[in-house]
Amino acid sequence: MSLKQRMPFLRWSVWRMARGTRNITTTGQIGDGREAAAVEYVLNHARAGDPDDVLAAFDRFAYHKAILINVGDEKGALLDAAVRRADPKLALELGTYCGYGALRIARAAPAAQVYSVELAEANAVNARRIWAHAGVADRVTCVVGTIGDGGRTLDTLANEHGFSTGTLDFVFLDHDKDAYLSDLQSILGRGWLHPGSIVVADNVKVPGAPRYREYMRQQQGKLWNTIEHKTHVEYQTLITDLVLESEYLGQS
Question: Which residues form the signal peptide (predicted)?
Fold first, then answer.
């Protein structure tokens, strides 16, 4: 890894991303076209039908062209391991972005149906192209919406995609950090989780999800058993981050 890769503030794409923070929360994209460029790069450089090569192409783009805000390679390995522990048949991701996280989940759980909820139609279009190229489009579905939309998206998952009591084995939170806790509580309220379901939350330190972290600490050994993985913000080694992996213990 080069100095620019280790030290993110030496990269122009990081400064452009900092200026686009407001865009991320409203459009799901940084606003300088890097997401579309990343998708075109992957489609042109990764072998069709090869999820490993598709993910590797994403990582090359993020290291050498413009940094991306998907989970990345270092934290992605933690995600992979958690998915394999859960061995899911049904998995849910909140925050699709370019489709990278859902692809990692599908690769680690080849028997799973993966659903990814995304607020931005443009991201959904990009992700579907990536999943088709990687050969997993039959197992990965993007649902445009948000969990906090008054129940419409939750109803869609239930009525159109078979989410029901005790069926959800794995959840990956990688969307609006302020919504982590409320969205997880909405999922809990539907009764979809079962004892042994695993929830992984990215970026708990940077940009941070303090209410979610405090909730998991308060519920340790009661409703949840949580491991805090110390790691780094995606695609660099200067800024540290936390990934929380929480096993649902069930209602006592």
Answer: none
Q: How many residues does the chain have?
A: 252
Told to judge if 202 belongs to the known catalytic residues of this protein, a careful annotator would answer yes
Q: What is the pLDDT of residue 23?
A: 63
Name the catalytic one among 203, 205, 241, 245: 203
Predicted confidence (pLDDT) at residue 121 exceeds the cutoff of 50: yes
* 203 given a catalytic annotation: yes
Instruction: Assign 3-class secondary structure to 71-132.
Output: CHHHHHHHHHHHHHHHCCCEEEEECCCCCHHHHHHHHHCCCCEEEEEECCHHHHHHHHHHHH
pLDDT grade, residue 18 (50/70/90)?
A: low
Can you give the pLDDT at residue 12? 46
Q: Which of 169, 174, 176, 245 is catalytic?
A: 174
- Per annotation, catalytic residue among 118, 177, 205, 241: 177
In CATH, which of 3.40.50.720, 3.10.490.10, 2.40.110.10, 3.40.50.150 is domain 72-248?
Answer: 3.40.50.150
Average pLDDT on 123-130 reads 97
